[in-house]
């Protein structure tokens, strides 16, 4: 399935990655480390990139963070990690970028929040200072408007106008329109400050799905700039996933959104990479990108009182994530592979036949046989313990990858 990109945008280069201009939708994420912690931040950036993040943003809020950025970039490049790094600036970005030119040079993009640049005349001056640095270093910027930090002068002016003219508009509608107005006005200021059209990306992030849909539909009609799409402060776990995907999925299906982040609140001690996996799965579910082999798995019912199929599905999903970085370097098209781990005879054989490799485990009271299908044909029947089944199935996956996908030239060692 191909979704037509209805929002025709200008292409913007962020490092070696193009955003907009007909390029595939790009996955982004953000570190949660103290950027002054060079080793910790570099390690998390590398982990996010390995998980599938194609652009990573870091907080640059204090001099120590700005001073650390060049060394973080050097360490990553030394490890072969070329993921573009974005600096997230609030309140003092104009000072940090001018006082730490090595930071400005090392970053691949600057994120500016118009509501947090300053007030009155100083806001425009300080915004122009950041644009001047971007112009000097030929860096793109993201003009990132947030509902929680919207320019209050603009909001109060529009609220008063609504009252004086008896327009009867809700406060939510006014705030949504203010976000779009702030983004468009700030884009105009950036162009006046000397930035090119192909140096500007826009976002207008809110925390409610219906508001996000409203804002981005309006934004897509008002500009040709690439749009960074995301539901801010989406929340934890299931809530964050459902709220993000309900709004972002609809907008992406309408062709709106050129780069995305799923802003999940991780569990204490949780894995920051979960938000990357979520973004990749969202794009893959819509047929916009393919990042990794997909696993169809049985949800379970009264026929599947054993947990074996659940354990096997979880293990295979983890195995794929572990092996995918190497497969991606070595084989072309492996991300399109499909697998199925099913729990009983009702849908098991049918779903297994529809996958490249599928296994149908026995349900309660069924014979202890596990038919395996490869490209729709019954290839073998497995029996044994869970560990034996898991190892055999992983072996089949490895054999399928090596025999069905072309080796990339860079992965072929020249003969002596």
Written account of the structure:
The protein is an alpha/beta fold. The chain has 2 domains: 12-286, Dihydropteroate synthase-like (TIM Barrel); 294-403, Sulfite Reductase Hemoprotein, domain 1, CATH 3.30.413.10. Helix content is 45%, strand content 17%. An 8-stranded parallel sheet has the order 8-7-6-5-4-3-11-9. The two termini are 44 Å apart. The mean pLDDT is 94.
Please outline what is shown here.
The chain is of the alpha/beta class and 416 residues long. The protein contains 13 helices and 17 strands.
Fold blueprint:
Elements: E1 12-14, E2 17-19, E3 26-30, H1 38-51, E4 55-59, H2 63-78, E5 85-89, H3 93-99, H4 101-106, E6 109-112, H5 120-137, E7 141-146, H6 152-164, H7 171-192, E8 200-205, H8 209-222, E9 228-229, E10 235-236, H9 237-253, E11 259-260, E12 264-265, H10 274-285, E13 294-297, H11 308-330, E14 338-342, H12 348-354, E15 357-360, E16 370-374, E17 377-382, H13 386-404
Parallel strand pairs: 3-4, 3-11, 4-5, 5-6, 6-7, 7-8, 9-11, 10-12, 13-14, 14-15
Antiparallel strand pairs: 1-2, 15-16, 16-17
GO molecular function: 4 iron, 4 sulfur cluster binding; 4-hydroxy-3-methylbut-2-en-1-yl diphosphate synthase activity (ferredoxin); 4-hydroxy-3-methylbut-2-enyl-diphosphate synthase activity (flavodoxin); iron ion binding
Binding site for [4Fe-4S] cluster: 298, 301, 344, 351
Pfam family, one: GcpE
Number of β-strand runs: 17
CATH level-four homologous superfamily name of the largest domain: Dihydropteroate synthase-like
- Tell me, rounded to a whole number, the average pLDDT: 94
- Write down the Rg: 24 Å
CATH architecture of the largest domain: Alpha-Beta Barrel
Distance N terminus to C terminus?
A: 44 Å
Q: How big a fraction of the residues is strand?
A: 15-25%
- Order the strands across the largest sheet as they lie in space: 8-7-6-5-4-3-11-9
- CATH top level of the largest domain? Alpha Beta
What structural class is derived from the secondary structure elements?
alpha/beta
Shape: globular
Number of helices: 13
| CATH T-level topology of the largest domain | TIM Barrel
**Biggest β-sheet strands, sense, barrel:** 8 strands, parallel
Order of helices and strands: EEEHEHEHHEHEHHEHEEHEEHEHEHEEEH
The helicity comes to 40-55%
Query: Which regions are unreliable across 5 or more consecutive residues at pLDDT < 50?
Result: none
Catalytic activity: (2E)-4-hydroxy-3-methylbut-2-enyl diphosphate + oxidized [flavodoxin] + H2O + 2 H(+) = 2-C-methyl-D-erythritol 2,4-cyclic diphosphate + reduced [flavodoxin]
Cofactor: [4Fe-4S] cluster
Protein name: 4-hydroxy-3-methylbut-2-en-1-yl diphosphate synthase (flavodoxin)
GO molecular function, one term: iron ion binding
